[in-house]
Amino acid sequence: MKTLFAVLAAATILGVPAxxxxxxxxxxxxxxxxxxxxxxxxxFSAGKxxxxxxxxxxxxxxxxxxGQMKLTPVFSxxxxxxxxxxxLRFARYGNQYYLTExxxxxxxxxxxxxxxxxxxxxxxxxxxxxxxxxASH
Length: 137
Hints:
This protein has one domain (22-135).
């Protein structure tokens, strides 16, 4: 009992809930993205991308065509479709796309990717013209 209490206390102090042993989306998600897109202040070229859990549960690693890579913070996100396929969700502003969410196949808990401060400033007063979902494979 003391051991269990110590583990839970350590997890709480470190800011890692016991239920979050993995990242928010839990597994790799791969997709072929047909357009250039932004993650934070980084622009990724169209092509094959793989998004993987990082060693910390509130971060993910994005690797795309041409060797581009980024470690980015994420927040928890939910969807209601139980058993739905994996997706990458993008917000579209004119001809610019921003990665906003990642869901692994069959999971209702995913990861939300925050806009960077620079992106927020550039997009101030603009409204997303749509959401685009790319299925994972």
